[in-house]
UniProtKB/TrEMBL annotation:
This is NUDIX domain-containing protein. Pfam families: NUDIX. Residues 1-20 are annotated as: Disordered. Residues 29-171 form the Nudix hydrolase domain. InterPro entries: NUDIX_hydrolase-like_dom_sf, NUDIX_hydrolase_CS, NUDIX_hydrolase_dom. PANTHER family: ISOPENTENYL-DIPHOSPHATE DELTA-ISOMERASE. CDD domains: NUDIX_Hydrolase. PROSITE patterns: NUDIX (PS51462), NUDIX_BOX (PS00893). Keywords: Hydrolase.
Length: 182
């Protein structure tokens, strides 16, 4: 069954309406999503390689975990659910530090217009990489990369076509926030 998402107005206020995810993307309606950035105490960031069958940015490296907030769900509930689904890790709400809410608008081939309010969180990765279980079809691979290298490649735009093209300002916020916790 297809996910149903809340429809928000361009300022991020819920309209009280919901629709199937495919319709939300086809019509370009704003909706909430979650991003969870995991980092290690040794200064590395967990990245996921998007599955080859993904409608948007297949095969590119992206945020540790990301997903849609389903209708009736809070961003925190969605974050905990998505972490379990995408990497097989159970976490408590106290393990997530709120980074901020970011507005993002991207048009994709095939008529997908993705307009999101991304609730972004940070969390320390407390298990080894091999303890994580990538979700089949969604996540092709996982890797931990030194924060400095990630910052140069993604925030510094040194490797276009390798990472999902989030804005430089967004990547900068993530890098600075992780660095402040090390």
């Amino acid at each position: 069954m297809e996910e149903h998402l809340e429809i928000w107005d361009p300022s991020g206020v819920p309209t009280g309406k919901t629709a199937p995810k495919s319709e939300v993307h086809r019509e370009g309606w704003f909706h909430p999503t979650v991003h969870i950035w995991f980092y290690t105490p040794t200064g590395k960031v967990l990245l996921q390689k998007r599955g080859p069958g993904k409608e948007t940015f297949p095969g590119l490296w992206d945020v540790s975990v990301a997903g849609h907030v389903q209708a009736g769900e809070t961003p925190m509930e969605a974050a905990i659910r998505e972490v379990k689904e995408e990497i097989g890790l159970e976490i408590a709400p106290t393990a997530l530090a709120f980074l901020g809410r970011f507005k993002s608008e991207q048009a994709h081939p095939g008529g997908i217009v993705d307009r999101e309010f991304q609730y972004s969180y940070l969390s320390q990765l407390t298990v080894p990489l091999d303890a994580l279980v990538p979700q089949a079809g969604e996540v092709e691979a996982l890797e931990v990369k030194p924060l400095i290298q990630f910052a140069e490649e993604a925030w510094g735009l040194a490797r276009p076509g390798h990472y999902v093209p989030h804005s430089g300002a967004y990547y900068g916020e993530v890098v600075r926030a992780i660095k402040s916790r090390l």
